[in-house]
Design brief:
- This protein is mainly β.
- It has helices at 54-57, 70-78, 140-146, 228-232, and strands at 18-22, 31-38, 41-43, 63-65, 82-86, 91-94, 97-99, 114-116, 119-121, 130-133, 148-158, 163-168, 177-182, 199-201, 209-211, 217-222, 226-227, 238-244, 247-250, 256-257, 261-267, 277-283, 289-292, 305-310, 313-318, 322-328, 333-339, 342-347, 351-355, 358-362.
- Strand 22 and strand 23 form a beta hairpin.
């Protein structure tokens, strides 16, 4: 087979050409070409595809073989990121899928869906919160198999209360950013020795993004090693927030993001006290609070005192004059005022507050 002219010079019973497809991270249509399998190894002048060898070709990239004979399946099982075609269905199966988040590796890209029998992803996960974006469907069954306690999608960023809210997500579609928590006692290397899990990898979309409750594009994922500045791509009004020590913290432009991570991108919040941070609030699918890192705040304890939330306000009902302190969930003081006996309405934005030691929800 002449790789220059793309013509077959000689064909005998002892030789067979295999049809293959390949693409790079730029998202072009897959390049189709022919190759040989000799002594159980794929042979092709990989420099024709801009690579030095098969290993460099398949870093975060899948090579598709349009054949499912024993020899091609054997090659796929002994090499990473090679998918073979399955009979009449025309679907592809990859027996050894490897995801890499090293700085030197290319951006991950999938031009054609495939099923994976094994996924290797060498990342130590934190049992508290981990921001992820996976190229496969993260079903509840797969979550249980990996030891993931739950997955959450972005709901809203409440700048008044200092909380970013996430709601429970039973089955996370492929290419959707989310945060996960691990079950108690689960090792951080959750992909180790998982050989019998069926992962469904999906075509890489143009953007990895999920919309919040107001249909705004706020929560993003990345499949390449980059910086916060690279994620913003010249936008000067937005800021990037990444998980650090269990909170979402505004990052510097030089902050590095590895592949298969997710981050919040929202309007920059000016501050004179350094990079602002947000607590992470978790909700169930019905919007009920599951947990929030609420700092303990105290106020004046007065008998005959009651605080309740209403529309964009906190109603204070007290039988005598007292001092009222309203805190955001991150411990920041929102209001401090003295109220007289009776009913007083304190206007605030929607969110959750702590008023003289009691939690109040404002719609």
């Amino acid at each position: 087979y002449d790789v220059q002219t793309k013509e077959v010079q000689k064909l005998t019973d002892n030789n067979k050409l295999y049809s293959a497809k390949y693409t790079n991270e730029k998202g072009y249509e897959p390049t189709e070409f022919k190759l040989n399998i000799i002594s159980g190894e794929l042979t092709y002048p990989w420099s024709e595809l801009g690579k030095n060898d098969l290993e460099s070709l398949t870093k975060n990239t899948v090579l598709y073989l349009d054949d499912n004979k024993d020899v091609t399946v054997a090659v796929a099982k002994t090499n990473p990121n090679i998918a073979v075609k399955n009979g009449l269905k025309g679907a592809y199966t990859c027996y050894n899928t490897v995801l890499s988040d090293d700085a030197k590796d290319p951006e991950f890209y999938i031009p054609i869906d495939f099923d994976a029998k094994k996924v290797t992803y060498n990342r130590e996960f934190n049992s508290k919160y981990a921001a992820v974006c996976f190229p496969f469907t993260l079903t509840k069954a797969i979550q249980d198999e990996l030891g993931i306690d739950a997955a959450y999608q972005f709901f809203e960023a409440n700048t008044e209360t200092g909380v970013m809210w996430f709601s429970l997500w039973q089955d996370v579609p492929a290419n959707q950013p989310c945060i996960i928590t691990l079950k108690d006692g689960v090792s951080g290397d959750i992909f180790a020795n998982k050989n019998d899990v069926d992962f469904s990898f999906k075509l890489t979309p143009e953007k990895l993004v999920a919309k919040d409750k107001n249909e705004k594009e706020t929560f993003y994922g990345t499949y390449k090693y980059t910086t916060a500045s690279g994620l913003l791509n010249g936008n000067v009004t937005d800021a990037i927030y990444g998980i650090q020590n269990g909170e979402l913290v505004k990052t510097k432009e030089t902050a590095k993001f590895k592949a298969f991570r997710s981050y919040v991108r929202t309007v920059n919040i000016p501050t004179t006290a350094g990079a602002p941070s947000f607590k992470i609030g978790l909700m169930d699918e019905d919007g009920n609070e599951l947990s929030t890192a609420i700092e303990t705040v105290t106020g004046e304890i007065v008998s005959g005192f009651k605080a309740k939330g209403s529309d964009n306000a906190i109603e204070i009902i007290t039988d005598k004059a007292c001092q009222v302190k309203v805190y955001a969930l991150n411990g920041a003081l929102v209001k401090s005022t003295r109220v007289e006996a009776g009913v007083t309405s304190l206007p605030v934005k929607a969110g959750m507050y702590v008023v003289n030691g009691a939690k109040v929800i404002v719609k």
